[in-house]
């Protein structure tokens, strides 16, 4: 797929800068076992996320990352590289989160985003709504995460 | 709604212990500003999650938690109290994540879960699939999170 390019950096982006069909690469991120265990101890302490020994005889033959950790890692790149740093008005929700392959210690994930559609808000004329599909693949190009995010963004000349 | 009760603790639960229509309270959890900022610095560093001063003149008139932090807090109770500690085979995904109200520092969230449906896997006879709706409300009974989780669970006499 041909990549798109924003005409302005994240601290100058508004709703109007997002266009349906835009495809962006957000960079990549390495995942260590220490990070996987640290996240999971706080939020998702299933044994195959936190216990090296028990995990090795478990369903994945080793530790895998909490799916929510993978979401967080992708979200970090989405916020840093894609989302406006000035016009974001947060999100009402997310849909269709899928973890088709596990993330293992030492994996490097590459994250991309496709803008699915954009529309002005009907009820609030100061903002618009952007729906994006975020995907993360590992170093073997296996998809480890896909999700659909909804973002509220201020319009450039809202006030 | 009348509450349900499992007949066995989490370390003895299998697929067969989950029944459609079951409703469970998982407990409550307090959220501090330090935790909100710490999570968001790592995974969702939008200014209204990490910068007290800038957030106070932002769209929420103060810091609010990343929606993914709220998911993590609810997930922790889901894993500790509801999910089997021996039969969980992880999750293929989640749907319909909604954040209808913000979570603010000092809030106390109460988390509940309803089992939507359960069915044996067609392709893998050793397991079943449980779909659950998780909801979190704040101290004013406002819903701050709802989401639908899918869990794979081993059957009791799988082998």
Structural summary, described in words:
The structure is a homodimer of 159-residue chains. Chain A has 159 residues and is of the alpha+beta class. Helix content of chain A is 23%, strand content 31%. Chain A has 4 helices and 5 strands. Chain A has a 5-stranded antiparallel sheet, with helices on one face. In chain A, strand 3 (108-120) and strand 4 form a beta hairpin. The radius of gyration of chain A is 17 Å and the shape is elongated. Chains A and B meet through helix 4 and strand 2 of A and helix 4 and strand 2 of B. Strand 2 of chain A pairs antiparallel with strand 2 of chain B.
Q: Quick gist of this model?
A:
The structure is a homodimer of 159-residue chains. The first copy, chain A, is of the alpha+beta class and 159 residues long. The first copy, chain A, has 4 helices and 5 strands; from the N terminus they run βααααββββ.
């Amino acid at each position: 797929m041909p990549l798109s390019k924003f005409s302005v950096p994240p601290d100058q982006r508004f709703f109007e800068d997002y266009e349906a069909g835009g495809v962006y690469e957000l960079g990549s991120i390495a995942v260590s076992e220490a990070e996987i265990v640290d996240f999971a101890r706080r939020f998702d302490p299933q044994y195959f996320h936190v216990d090296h020994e028990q995990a090795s005889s478990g369903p994945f033959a080793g530790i895998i990352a909490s799916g929510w950790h993978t979401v967080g890692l992708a979200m970090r790149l989405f916020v840093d590289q894609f989302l406006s740093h000035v016009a974001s008005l947060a999100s009402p929700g997310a849909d269709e989160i899928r973890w088709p392959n596990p993330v293992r210690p030492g994996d490097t994930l590459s994250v991309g985003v496709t803008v699915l559609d954009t529309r002005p808000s009907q009820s609030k004329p100061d903002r618009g709504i952007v729906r994006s599909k975020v995907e993360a693949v590992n170093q073997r190009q296996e998809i480890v995460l896909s999700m659909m995010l909804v973002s509220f963004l201020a319009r450039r000349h809202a006030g």
